[in-house]
Amino acid sequence: MLIISNLSLILKKDLRVLIKDFSLTVNKKDKIGIIGEEGNGKSSLLKAIYNQEEASKYLEIKGTINIKNEKIGYLPQMFEKELLEKSVYELLNEKNDYSLLDYKKYYFYIDKFNLDEEKLLSSSFLVGNLSGGERIKLFLLIELMKEPTVLLLDEPSNDLDLLSLNLLEELIINLNIPVIFISHDEHFLSRCANRIVHIESLKSKSEARVSVKNLSYDDYYQTREDFLDKNIREFNKDKENFEKKIEKYNRVYQSVNYALNTVSRQAPSVAKNLKDKMHSIKSMEKRYIKEKENLTQKYEVEDAINLKFDNLDKGKSGSSNSKINYLVDANKEVLDLNIDSLKVNSGITLIDKQISLYIKGAKKVALIGENGVGKTTLLRLIYHELKKNTSFKVGYMSQNYEDELLNYLSPLDYLSKTLNVSNKEDLTKIQTYLGSLKLTYEEMNRSISSLSGGEKAKIFFAKLILEKDNVMLLDEPTRNISPLSNKAFINSIKEYNGVLIAVSHDRNFVYQVFDDIYELDKENGLKKISKEEFYKRYF
User: Could you tell me the pTM of the whole model?
Assistant: First the structure.
């Protein structure tokens, strides 16, 4: 049995406490979803459970993690570079003893994950040449073949196509071992988790709090919202009532104090009465001090990110006549793409079908499809087509956006450099945006290389927003955004009134944000599907 007792994780580089006094007993049927904002220590917790010695290189670990007699399977968020440079066959042989392999289970998972056996047996096909989703499936296959007694998954829903997500959900639900997983996919959490561990960083990331609830994600979210609503109502009510009492007290105090200062020396009895009254008033003040200590306190929570696009024309003096200022005219032709087939740069044909996509006006278009079918290739092709039109300012966020960041710079210096700003007003605006994305002043001025993947994603979003692009192309934009912040992100990006074209496997994001949904596959090329069909197939 996996038992965690009074665990604290502290970053050695800046002594920031990620997790404090955390205890958890993991039961056989547990499917534990770990949630929290980026950089709060979710991945560090899984690493500490899997390999304390390795995690101790950058963490101070206090407390105990008892994994006696447990066989831990672990799927990391990031794969080491040397693993990506191996062939698929070499990796499989290295990680598994084929003499002990359960081939029935092996082929079951190959079929389940729709893996290409030719790639698995190839001594020349590199792991790094697999799509992101194919890598997840491969490493998950390797870990499952070890027959673990506890499975740790760090963002397994990242990069998986929609069909694979459904399969993974069914797999996790039906596994007869405990699974502890991190995911930013709300629907994935809703289906799989029966317990929630919520890691929060409060008071400008100076205080850590971990909540453990034996609830599904939906129940946890609703219970939390209900509690916060009740708390704020009671806080406001107590505050209002107390302020009325204090206001009344101040009026009485000032009145009696004025009378004491002006009472005639010839009226000693009146002065005595006023002094007695002032004594009673001061006694009342002590009662109010005690009463204030017992008022409902506002429950501190970690706020979600706050993205804001400048696309509202508020009219004169912020009047109610606010109107939407579309960044692309409704009659403006944005894209008229027609190609005979879809090929990668090496010339290999991914889809041997005609692909057409026509966009006019400020549309939001989602591209979905299986892993490895060519969605990212198509998005890059669209990007290069749009760049030919000088009337558009095009922003592009690739899956590998981290490679585009200048990791040696701080977020503040990076944005100042890429946006070419130096005046105080623009620098203040950059700081404000980074603050709205929940980066502390220290993180704004620390090298980007020291930040988490999610924090780096926030920096890239800030860049796109501040560039004021009228066309944005996003490849898996929500993959590193926490589920609680994802709601805020979805609501914010709905307000973006330029052209948005995105590849996504995030069901909530696709369903709630996009006007048109196109599915890319080898049989049909690019085919538009209705929202009703999308919901029916993937929810």
Answer: 0.85
